[in-house]
Amino acid sequence: MEGTVFTPCLEGMKNVKSEEGQMLTKPFLDTCKLILPVIEKFGAAMTLVKSDIGGNISVRSFLQPP
After folding, report:
1. Which GO terms describe its cellular component (predicted)?
2. What pLDDT shows up at residue 38?
3. What is the pLDDT of residue 65?
């Protein structure tokens, strides 16, 4: 079966938790970035949503300890 626009996001979700069940920030944010092209397919009406999500991902990336 061929993948869909959601396939990369769904595959990425497999890696966002540690074996102990803790959320891993970087893999989660990387997976969130994969949803942006999906939102873009909805057209100009979703431009602000895409921008907001992308901005939140960037801000969260800077808030991580080095």
Report:
1. cytoplasm
2. 86
3. 61
